[in-house]
Structures are given as structure tokens and as C-alpha cells.
Amino acid sequence: MSITSDSETSLSADSEVMRDKKICRYCSMDIPSSAKVCYHCQKHQKLVLAYFDRISILVSIALLILAFMQFREARNDRTSAEEALHQTQTVEKALRTAIKAFVENNYIIRKQYVTMGSTPEANKLFENNINSLAMFAIPDDESRAKWMDSLNKLHPKK
Predict the structure, then answer these.
(1) What DSSP state is assigned to residue 37?
(2) What is the pLDDT of residues 35-48, one digit of tens each?
(3) Residue 5 — φ and ψ, nearest 5°?
């Protein structure tokens, strides 16, 4: 049987209590060894969780920068596409105007040719050529019919 003094008993009790505790990384206060968060400073004891708020802010900023860069690239692409569309529309308008003028001139020539006398086959071929050009110049059937009527009114058959 061993005899222990009161001071030895309190010393062993203190060391046992110290084994159940650890020191907080941030505030250096004693906390239970099983604690995941310090109840003094409210910091996580694991490094990843301790810096989670900072990491999430950095990731958010990086995503915001990436989104802004993609927005600028998309805006530049849209601007380029709008310029290309405008150029295409300008060329198409000029081409349609040129074809209309060509068809009008050929229509007048055909009218004069018919008045001088021509074969029905040649007249039909000429009419088909003019109609195909007119279909390209004016794709809408109704608008094309109105335009052809206006040509007939300007240059009636003799």
C-alpha cells in the first residue's frame, strides 16, 4: 500500500486535466482537446476550416474576375458580329439594287425587242431569265409582283 500526500494527488489531478486540454492556436487559451472550435475566440482549430472564410472570398473574387473577362470577350465578339452583319447587309442591298437595275434594263430591251418581232421561244427564255433575277433581287412574292406591275405600267406593251 502506498501512501500519497495531498499535494501529489492534486498534482496528478492537474496533469490529468491538462491531458484533456490543448492550447488554442490563435488565442493561446486552454480548450478541451476534443474541441474543434475555440470557445474563446471562435476560431476553428483545423487550418483549412480556420481560413475557409478567406479562401471563399478569394475564390469569389477570382470567379468575378473570370466572369468579367468572359463578358468583355462576348461583348467584343458581338460587336464584331454586328459589324459583319452590317457589312453583309450593305453588300446585299447594293447587289439587290444592281440586279433590279439590270432587270429593269433587260425588261426595257425585251419590250423593244418584242415590238420589233421575236420568236416565242426566245421571248420565253428572256422572261425566265428576268424572273429568276427578280426572284433573287426581291425574294418576297408579293413585293416582286408589285414591282413587276410597276415595270409593266412604266413600259407598257405596244
Answers:
(1) B
(2) 888 888 888 887 76
(3) -90, 165
Task: Pinpoint the alpha helices (H) of 117-140.
Answer: 120-137
Find the helix packing angle between 52-116 and 141-154, rounded to 10°: 30
HSE at residue 146, side-chain half, CA atoms within 13 A, is 6
- Of the candidates 10, 29, 41, the one whose C-alpha atom is nearest the C-alpha of residue 21 is 29
**Domain parsing of the chain, residue ranges:** 9-44
The DSSP code for 57 is H
CA distances from 119 to 126, 152, 156 (A): 11, 20, 19
The answer to whether 144 and 110 have CB atoms below 8 angstroms apart is no
C-alpha cell at position 122: 426566245
Q: How far apart, in whole angstroms, are the C-alpha atoms of residue 22 and residue 29? A: 8
Q: Is residue 62 a contact partner of residue 54, using CB atoms and an 8 Å limit?
A: no
Q: How far is the C-alpha of 23 from the C-alpha of 95, rounded, in Å?
A: 84
Contact 23, 29 (CB under 8 A): yes
Global confidence as pTM = 0.40
